[in-house]
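Aim 2, interim progress. The first record below pairs a target sequence with its structure tokens.
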Amino acid sequence: MGTPEGEVKQRCKALFTRVGAYRAMVVTFGFGESGHPDFLVCLHGALIGVETKATAKSPVSALQRLRLKQIRQAGGLAFIVHDGNLVVFEQMLLAVHRHVGGAMQRIADERGVALATLKPWTDYNPLTLSGTAWQAVCRRMRQNPEEGKHARRHS
């Protein structure tokens, strides 16, 4: 069995895989900037920084807090995840996956397009859209929050 922080990292990795998120672990080996979160994750176009700790009392450096703040200021999400809040983090990430993924799938079905063939950076990125597709996703999520539970994964 690994360290307590290692166990939190393993559960996070399994969660990211389960929801189909892209994840990267930034290791600089002294050649890059320090303080980056343990995971940089992309889920349905959202950047998520995740710093893992063994417990809520494990120290988070000032530089790690600064990097998480920079991610939030840039429009991303940033979390410090430990054994005491891991279940809540899992529930939150699964809810995001269900709601956004399900809404995107329903719109693709209505348009008769396989979701896997869409280019998300042009079809669903709120920064590059005229707004119609992303507004439709948001509107559907507000109208029917249960809709996202019908997300289907496509390979």
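The second target in this work package is listed in the same format:
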Amino acid sequence: MPAADHTQARPGPHRPDPGPGPLNGASHPDPPPPAPPGPPGPAHRSAHPPLRTRPARRAGACGRQKLGRIPDGGGWRIHGRDQRNHDRAHTVGFDYIHSAVDDHTRIAYSEIHPNEKADTCAGFLRRAAAFFAACGIPTIERVLTDNAWSYRKATAWRQALSDLGATGKRTRAYRPQTNGKVERFNRTLLEEWAYQKPYTSNDERTAALQDFLHTYNHHRCHTALGGRPPISRVNNAPGQYS
């Protein structure tokens, strides 16, 4: 049997040249030394330039909560459901609680009105904007609302938005959760103010609203804010709030 030929095969048309390497005893060449750093100063550019941040846009959400008025002497929460007067001619009607919530800070502002007409909504928006400005939020860029007629078609509402330099946005139809912040505030409003205790009159409940709003904005801890109250997210003049 002929001896095996251990010589290196010559490159052919179907056999690429292996080049220098372990098969012929040559080692891989050392990698080239790193290039010297560029000169300091403006001429040196980083491969990853710093991010540019945009100024925060301030948006607010508006909504309404319909609430039955309390007759003098108290309603069914004091006297029980069986003692209610079922005669519609003697009902005391409804209040409409208009509320606005700042998207960033969660600061809330509310007013009680006997209706939800366009002029009422427009006047409320202007006063809410003035309240937010006093809290250190001078500009409102967008206002998110539901699809009520007063927000969709009313000239008074559109004029109020124009005067504030804001854009009106509306939620998707039949999707109130789109306006989640004000919907969540309305739940808190009912639990911690409207139904917090049995009131003996509608005036008593109305008078308690301002105390609730102060507690909500200045002292109530919010999970979404890291356990801090909304007022902690704005820069206030010293002593302006207590």
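Residues 118-134 form the longest helix (17 residues). This observation will shape the mutagenesis plan for the next reporting period.
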